[in-house]
Amino acid sequence: MTEWACDIARAIARVLDNRGISDRELARMIGRSQNYVSIRLRCESPLSLADLDAIGHALEIDPASLLHGVPRKPLSEAAPSVSGNGTDVATAVHGRDEGTKSAYGLAAKRGRRKADQPHAE
What is the pTM (predicted TM-score) of this model? Predict the structure, then answer.
């Protein structure tokens, strides 16, 4: 898990603490197990966007505000850029082209298989 993702989990834990809401209560509010919530708030597994959306809804706050107060450290100059120079976003994220191309190929094949199969009527 990245430090930024862990900072977000800690920020959520602070909101819960300030409101007197336990992990168990939050889990009930978002329809997850206490273990699921606890693992994420202890930074053992990252929160998903769906988690942030559910938590924001449960706490009656904008999910984006869960990210707003957590500054992201600047990327080093060695990090890939996704500026307007035509760099593929997936390549920038994964840092290599061959893995993303094969992932795209597999996804495209899966999509074609589904589309090529006759529909049951």
Answer: 0.59
